[in-house]
Design a protein that fits this description.
The complex is a heterodimer of chains A (about 160) and B (about 800). Chain A has about 160 residues and is α+β, with helices and mostly antiparallel strands. Chain A folds into 2 domains: about 60 residues, Orthogonal Bundle (Arc Repressor Mutant, subunit A); about 80 residues, Glutaredoxin (3-Layer(aba) Sandwich), CATH 3.40.30. Chain A contains 7 helices and 4 strands. Chain A has a 4-stranded mixed β-sheet, covered by helices on one side. In chain A, a hairpin with a 2-residue loop joins strand 3 and strand 4. With about 800 residues, chain B is of the alpha/beta class. Chain B folds into 5 domains: about 80 residues, Ubiquitin-like (UB roll) (Roll), CATH 3.10.20.740; about 140 residues, Alpha-Beta Plaits; about 190 residues, Rossmann fold, CATH 3.40.50.740; about 140 residues, Dimethylsulfoxide Reductase, domain 2; about 100 residues, Beta Barrel (Barwin-like endoglucanases), CATH 2.40.40. Chain B is globular. Chain B starts with a strand and ends with a strand. The chains are: A alpha+beta (about 160), B alpha/beta (about 800).
Chain lengths: ~160, ~800
Amino acid sequence: MSELLPAEEIAELKRQIAAVHEPRELIVEVLQAVQQHHGWVPDAGVELAAKLLGLSPLQVDEVATFYDKIYRSPVGRKVIHVCDSICCWSRGAESVYRHLQQCLGIAPGETTSDGLFTLLPTCCLGACGEAPAMRIGDRLYGELTVERVDAILAEERQEAEV
Amino acid sequence: MPTLIIDNQSVTVPEGTNVLEAAQQLGIVVPHFCYHEALGAVGACRVCAMLFIDGPVKGMQMSCMVEAKDGMVVSTEAPEAVAYRSQVIEWLMLNHPHDCPVCDEGGECQLQDMTVASGHSVRRYSGKKRTYQNQDLGPFIAHEMNRCIQCYRCVRTYQDYCGGTDYGVLGANQRLYFGRFRDGPLESPFAGNLVDICPTGVLTNKPYRFTSRFWDLQEALSVCPHCSLGCAVIPGARFRELQRVRAGVNPEVNGWFICDRGRFGYDYVNHPDRPRTPLLHGEELPWSEALEALQQRLSELIDRHGSDSIALLGSGRASLESNYLLRRLGEQLGTAAPVYGSHAARDRAARAVTDLAAKLSASLAEVRSSDLLLVMGADPLAEGPMLALAIRQAVRNGGRVMLCDPRPVELPCSAEHLPCQPQELPQLLRILAAGENLPANLQPLADALQQAKRPVLIGGSDLLGAEGSAALLAAAQKLNSAERPCRTMILLPETNSFGAALLAGDGPDFDQLLNDMDSGRIKALLCLEADPLTDCPDRKRLLQGLEQLEFLAVLDHLPSLTAKKADLLLPTTAVAEGAGTLVNNEGRMQAFAQVFSPGEPLRFTGQGGHPPRNFSSTTPGALPCQAWAVLAELCGLPVNLAEIRRELAAKEPRLAGLPELSAEGPGQRVLPGNGASSSVPPAVATADESLQLLVCETLYGSEPLSALSAPLDPVCPHPYVLLQELDAARLGIAADDLVQLTAGGQQLALPARLSSRMAEGLVIVPRLRGTELESFYPGQPPLPCRVEKVSTP
């Protein structure tokens, strides 16, 4: 389990879990910690979380698979979530999505061969006012156009190379 | 009681009824998936929509979510409502495969029925359907996720109602998946209910898979024979084979669900070694000659040795009517009253329980609505699994459970464990029965009892014994008052233990029979669906006694040890093959109807292939007769169940309601006994240095009928010995080590299991039939024993 979470982080999570009334409250936090260290949450990560929380692996996986920001399969170093919900759709999200697929040479759900980007759809980023929107890692990008997408991808690539 | 109008018909319903239930009362078929009587309503599936025309709510509403109120005018037939429902069902059907012809659910599929009822008959969607990988969910449940319509019933049943944690819902919106974390057997002993609850063919009965269509089955209302609770079941048979059991509905007992032992324990009925022909010294003979031989042999022995040379043995497996006619036969022959039960201590405990004043007896419905359950010396999951589920419902409704048991009793819900050494249990019972103050370490229990409004005291007759059971009843009586009702429920070993014990009255028990056999007085023994060679704890003495017999006659449907030794074997029918009455552990008489006639399953006679073409005028293996009918004939009485019930009710005033009993309805309580005699359980001799061996029933493998059921083979445990961790550490034993158990003059090598939750100084082995542990008997005081390590695995 050591490669999933360092011992001191496990100890800290145990402290937090002991302090809450209902361990289920912290399922997402524990899974996020695993994801932070491991890049995604493998089955062993779910089992580790279940052990820490005193729940069954199924009970943890119910939550893990509900959220599209918890990755249960391997992803690239940067995950692109493109909103395909109604506001973004009405403001041209489809062409942005198409363009991303062309630029990256991958279909939704796939990862670029250099392991940098994974492309995923998402249902609303809460950025309807800036539609169409996408998220790369923890960064939110709004008012997307085909040109802006090119620039963003270049910037993100550059950042990753540094 | 609100009165409302649905489809121009007026209906008055109890407060709290929802409009869907009100419409059903009028006989209106309302489509529904997420609503279920036992699970309640969540308003998620949207197919029970109705148009509310007048009253406190108006417009299109989900009828399961609206409480019926005065002045409501509702239409199920309004064009808007019809259109709404048909669109919703079309969405639900979008991804559903067109595989009804090969689906096991076909013909009893709620989705089929509701799709038709909602008016969706032509599929317009021609796109790709969502598909899934199925999981292996173990030996009981087949998984076919493509058929899922996301009603969530399975999760609500498995997790919420039954307390399972290994099956649930994964994913979100269009990629929902109902299953486990990974392939593997479902852990809950109530998993089989998923078959009944799934409205379509996602979760189906695996042992029954591809055997029959619903409409080809012979079904009837019956009672489960696999423990003393008497849950309602509906067995289904075809081709002379009992193929499956589904849950019946009895709101007073099991509600809508049953346990997996009850659902998959049926196969003893089809057992290939089952006695199917009358046998005299191993030779087949016709019934008429067999009965003649029996009568002749008995009268011969009576002439030679007197009528007290004949002993009769009834059982808690046989129906009330059969057990009664055995007594009747004894009266005619002038013998002593029958002994009811081959295990004297269990028989005495059951008799103590029948003394119960009926008003103090709790039904499972009362357990479900209790706010404090005191479980003392009972292991519900092993001794009466549906009681565990009832306890869980009480906890879900805010009730508390306090467990007092030297064993590591598990429940599918949270429970507070009170410290309990074996000797503390009788002490606690004595204090409760005497109404004295509880010791300081049990203060939480005293406080809980003080505050409880509807407490139920729960016990198990195996651990409590006759004295403990009587003390528990006395405690309930003491704690019961007009303002604060206190009820009690004691689990008994067999399906009709209560009925047999009631007929036994103050008659002889098996210990007396053994004495009489020792003295050489008994020359003939007639066993009615009893297997003393397996059940009597003193097998050595019994074997000696049997050697001295001149004649052993056995009526049974099991290939039992005693049946194999019989001079005369008369094959009887299993519960599903006959009619009769069983009395459950709360004293509820329940009639069961005949599902099918006995016969050798076509599967055997056809050797797995095409049905055989050797024609004959008789049905193979159809000779077993209902035990009560055989006994009625021996008594020279008309073979008429109704008449026997009338006669029995006239002779036993406590069974007064028997003639009116029907297989439909919740059954009827026997009339009150004399009330609990407040005898005090003897204090268990506090442990000397030696370990004490306790033999306990388990969920699978202990109960005699289901132990012969092939579908349960994969879940039957292998023999093991359970040790308290501290004792094990002292003895240098680790989990899975092979240890030698020495007790009762026997030595066995068994793998060790460890528990931190059981009492120190105690060693537990499960009662497992057909294994080397068969010679250890439950319902006995603990045996001194020795445990030594043999090897590490």
